[in-house]
Amino acid sequence: MFPFYSVAYAQSADSASGSPFFQFIPLVLILGVFWFLIIRPQQKKQKEHQRMVDSLRKGDKVVSNGGIFGTIVKVGDDRVTLEIASKVQIQLERQQVARTDKKAGGDIDDEEVKEEIEDKKGKKAKKKKTDD
User: Fold this and answer.
1) How high is the pLDDT of residue 23?
2) How far from the centroid of its chain's Cα atoms is residue 75's Cα?
């Protein structure tokens, strides 16, 4: 009925691998791979998001998890009020803010970016003078 039935008992009990320690090495390696490739990056991302949410302030341009772009008008303990259009305001939980919108931000804090913009303006002005 079962052709492999007799083969199942062909090995003796002595041929099993030696120490139980060596049987757990693959399990430990798999857990290590999961830790470094999945768990650790997710924890870093979560901490970064929490820092961003804690640093929200009035006037920041943000994007919600639902894809709504807006400017923060009011910041509460657990909610923020966004102005998404002229005189149209909505409330969101702070955790629902996905990211700050760098493209729409009017304030530039990075000194290098400011210098780069000034250099470009200076080059355009020089080019315009030489053309005249």
Assistant:
1) 85
2) 22
Closest C-alpha to 81, from 57, 98, 54: 57
Residue 21's φ and ψ, nearest 5 degrees, are -60, -40
CA 45 to chain centre: 5
**Cα–Cα dist 69/123, whole Å:** 34
Q: pLDDT tens, 67-87?
A: 999 999 999 999 999 999 999
Residues in the chain where the model's pLDDT stays below 50 = 105-108
Q: Are 61 and 96 in contact (CB under 8 A)?
A: no
Report whether 67 contacts 101 (CB < 8 A): no
Tell me the β-bridge partners of 63. 69, 99
